[in-house]
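Input sequence (133 aa), recorded before submission:
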Amino acid sequence: MTRSDNPDLKRHNAAWRQFTGHDSAEVVRDGFWPKMAKFFARIPFASEALAAYYCATDAQTPKRVKGLLLAALAYFVMPVDLIPDLLPGLGFTDDMTVLATVIGLIRAHIRPEHRARAARALNDLKAGRKPPL
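Predicted structure, token format:
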């Protein structure tokens, strides 16, 4: 039995979606780029968030790593935070803590090509262009 066929894991995931009311992948897919485009200049960890996004959307990334990254990115995207994003100097500290913790756990899976795509995307955002997905 593969991990994705595990009935306990499927029950856990279904319970999580019911409890939180969302699917992390869907939240990230719908909200990541609009939030990044709006706040990238105020996000001190924008490059790391972009690298995490590209790692999470890479078909070669293991599913458990994708799950961790998508959960952290969903927290970043969600409009309700422990610390509101609009507070100057403090707004993104909770998002940064969650993302830094997850990246610390899976750092080996963020490859140079993810970082290169993140750097290009950040340059596109700075130039007012929408980065390629």
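Checked by second reader. The chain has a mean pLDDT of 80.
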